[in-house]
Every structure is written in C-alpha cells, then in structure tokens.
Amino acid sequence: MARQFSGIKPTGEMHVGNYVGAVGRWVDQQDDGIFCVVDLHAMTMPYDPADLRSETVRLATLLLASGLDPQRCTLFVQSHVPVVAELTWILNCVATVGELRRMTQFKEKGDGQESVSAGLLDYPVLMAADILLYDTDEVPVGEDQTQHVELTRDVATRFNHRFGDTLVVPKATVPPVGARIKDLQNPTAKMSKSLESPQGTILVLDEPKAITKKVKSAVTDSDTEVRYDVEAKPGVSNLLALLSVATGTPVPDLETEYATSGYGTFKGAVADALVEYLRPTRERYAELAADPAELARFLAVGAARAEAIASATMDRVRTAVGLLATR
Length: 327
Ligand code: AMP
Ligand code: TRP
Description:
Layout: E1 5-8, H1 16-28, E2 34-37, H2 49-66, E3 74-77, H3 83-92, H4 97-101, H5 104-110, H6 118-133, E4 138-140, H7 146-163, E5 171-173, H8 208-216, H9 234-247, H10 251-258, H11 263-289, H12 292-321
Parallel strand pairs: 1-2, 2-3, 4-5
Bound molecules: adenosine monophosphate and tryptophan.
C-alpha cells in the first residue's frame, strides 16, 4: 500500500481550507498513514515559545477530534523525532539556494521583511526531510504545497543520482475539489490562518452561529446565477466547492439544484452543510481537550513508531553519503 505522510503547522487556528485541502482527506484515508504537527516549521517567523507549546497541544487535540485514530495511523510531533534535523542538513548539501529562492511561499513571506531568517529559506528542505525520512509515496496537501513537494522530488532524485538509490521519490495528491479554498471576503485570495480576515475565514472550531454569519456575508457578485466559474465568479465557485465537499455532492449536481434558487437560499444551504460537516469535530474537541495526559500518551506512541521508520532511513542515508558508522 502506498504510504501517506503529511504535516500541518501549529500556527493560528485550523480553518476549513486546511480541513478540505488536507486534514479531512487524512482522516478518510488514514490507515497506516503518518501525520505530523510540524512544530519546527512554526519557528521561521518571530513567535512566542509559550504559544508554540500551547498551539502544538491544541492542534494535536484537534487532529484527534477530526477523526485521526492512533490505532489506525501514526500521529506525532515533528520535533519528537530529532533526526529530521540531521536529514535536513544532509539535504541542504543537495538542494540549491537558487531553487529555494524561487519558492512562491518564500517570496510571499519574505517580501517586504527587513530581515529574513535562514530558516524561512530552508523551510522546504525541512519539509523534504519530513517526507523522505518516512519513505513516503503520497503527500496529501492543498495546492499551495505542491511546489514544495515538487522540490522534494527533485532533491530526492538528485540525491539518488549522486549517492545511489536510497530515497523514495514521493508525489503530492490534491483533492479534485477544494484544493485551494478562498477567503470568503476576498475570494481571489486563499483562506489562511493569518488573522487579517477573521470574517473571511471559517475556523473548524467556530460555533454554528459564527459559521452561518460568515457564509451569509460572503462576497459573491452582482449576478444571480449559481454556476462554477472560478475566473468570472470566484465567490460563488468557492461556496460551491465548500458545499460539494461538505455534502459529498458533485458540483454539476449542485449547479442544477441551485441554478434558480437565488444566492440567499444557496448561502443558507452552504452554511447548514458546513455546520454539520464540522459539528463532530467541534463536539469531540471539548471532550479530548479535557484529558491532556491521554494526548501525551498518544503522541509518545506516535513518536516511537515514527522514530523506528526514521532510524532505518537514516542508516541508509548515512551509509550512502559516506558518514562513518558509530558501531
Ligand atoms: P498549514 O496550515 O500551512 O500547515 O497547512 C496545512 C495543510 O492545509 C497543507 O496541506 C495546506 O496545503 C492546506 N491548506 C492551507 N490552506 C488551504 C486552503 N485555503 N485551501 C486548501 N488547502 C489549504
Ligand atoms: N509546509 C507545510 C504547510 O505549510 C507543512 C508541512 C511540513 C508538510 N512538513 C510537511 C506537509 C510534510 C506535507 C508533508 O502546510
């Protein structure tokens, strides 16, 4: 079976874009998958250490609440398997500064900053180390991460060419609908965790009333037709994608169903569907958050399982690159 690995950063609240693009699919195909709260990736921009700790716990709890089951998959915290930093160094000597500077996320996050950490540039190499450490075949992510997975492929291929066949070359998988969920207030920009647009971002833990209010005030267009056309009708298309994923109904069927209903009725249906889609996660979250010791036990088991896979890969890598064995 193809091995799945993916990660999510503990920065800001998980939103419906994360859920549709990534986490919901992890849950659906979780058997033998490896999923990771990537705390080391959350350190590239200025941050507060106490927040990093609490957000790591919060996000791991939310992943369990979303339906990841430690009996079926491996859930762990990235820094609990520290050899990922060793593999990052080794891959740093294979990746080039030129290819890292070309990454869209680096350009966006670094743009206009007076000073940029070396970690921000190196971020995709750490991500490549994550993926390659666990002999990953498939990386379920949203569209914004596909460029980083392409880089991972390039680095792994170059490594294998230089040092002999050592690393599994992975590929990204993105969902057919909802690979890039847009901000409800600004439907040409992706929904994101930054707090710039709270009304445009539906959080997984939002109360039903808040979800309904955000959907009802979503920006659409002056037309009345419910039709999927990302260029001409970005707002309506985004709502159609959300409704499709939340109900499991293909977009063309929804276009037919809501063709003449008007935007008010359509938005009402989207709001109701999202409330139901997110309800089980919100309800389980409260329960799980009450028992942090249980979470710590799950994460320890996850780290031990991840560590076993990682150490076998590192033995191969160290030998391939010419590091002297310790025993
Ligand atoms: P991050 O929160 O940046 O760690 O992202 C975690 C996962 O959510 C990654 O696979 C992203 O590609 C995915 N993701 C983030 N934002 C969106 C979005 N607006 N639409 C779809 N997927 C997203
Ligand atoms: N960079 C990813 C993001 O911002 C998170 C991530 C880190 C990741 N390591 C990964 C995703 C490995 C997939 C596989 O969303």
